[in-house]
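Entry 14: structure prediction run for Aminotransferase. Input pasted below.
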Amino acid sequence: MTEYLSKRLSAVRPPQTIALALKVQQMKAEGHDIISLGQGELDFATPEHVAEAGIKAIRDGQTKYTAVAGTPELKAAIARKLKRDNGLDYEPAQIIAGTGAKQLVFNAMMATVDAGDDVVIPVPAWVSYPDIVRLAGGNPILVPMTAADGWKLTPDALAAALTPATKWVMLNSPGNPTGALYTAEELAALCDVLRDHHALIMADDIYELIVHEGSFATPAAVAPDMVDRILTVNGVSKGFAMTGWRLGYAAGPAWLVRAMDILQSQSTSNPSTISQAAAAAALDTDPAELQPRLTRLTARRDMVMEAIAKMPGVEAATPPASFYVFPSVEGLMGARTPEGGVIENDMDLSNYILAAARVAVVPGSAFDMPGHLRLAYALSEDRLAEAMDRMVTALSALELP
Ligand code: PLP
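Run finished. Output tokens:
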């Protein structure tokens, strides 16, 4: 019955991550003890005071529609956060809340991208960017980054990718899947390249609060003369372990926010009223309260890096931010498994690791960078230690080419 599907949808790739997730589900159902390093979701609970704010909202009857772009209270909390943490000044008309950061990226693309428009996406990148651009009818222009450059887009690579058709440039720091973190100077250099070009800039700051070393910077703050073309996207999913609350936000020029509001009014309307109340409480959280969680995440990252050092053919520099490590596994291509199979690519390797170690990891090709794996260390320390032991054993059993 696929003839019923829209052309729009047929442009979208079947996500490799779904095939992996289905396999994991099936193996779990068969009774296997699978440890997943696949999910970009923290095991931590939503902070108590945030959950309480959600419960209070229900009890107080805050269970009705709100303004499409969010309540005045939430917008005020977002504005306070942007001022306090980023030194940015935004009016309510320049702020929109949505059902996760993902919806805001989607709305921004749907509101601005036409057939023939290019969107520059430095890769490896979050799986959704290219497909959201395709759904909007645009062309994702994938610009490869390298481990040697710390998985960061260079000004030269950006300059070479720009054409008159470039409508957007997507920047994501801290980055998924690599954990790369741009300095203010690096962002300023990219903004310098874009200053005389008409492209809009998307700054996806969703991992802002997960920085192990270095300081977070955001384009709107480093290039204040360009704020009319910058959309800053953020949310509570990652920093506050609130993925299921589905609450993200964006701040940018009023004309763009208005357009996104119109789109949203014909899809989801306002994000959950209850989640808005909880998110307002989250955004007013003293960062010191989150420090113990961050300390644990840093220790987990170090645990993964120690294990990687013991894995033959696997290499990665220590990522400064987010909860991902994105090692190269090029050294394992052509390796023979104990069963006599050959590892031809990163998908084969992730299948082997799943079968031999009962650990799920995402192949780099899902992020448009084959020859790598993404390991999310968003699970408990004991399970992570177990996963690392199993991976070291399984990879040591390969016969290297
Ligand atoms: N942006 C990036 C880079 C992400 O990795 C994710 C989630 O994985 C999102 C946005 C979406 O976040 P949300 O849960 O707020 O929709």
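Notes: The chain has two domains: 2-45+288-396, 48-286. Will compare against the previous run tomorrow.
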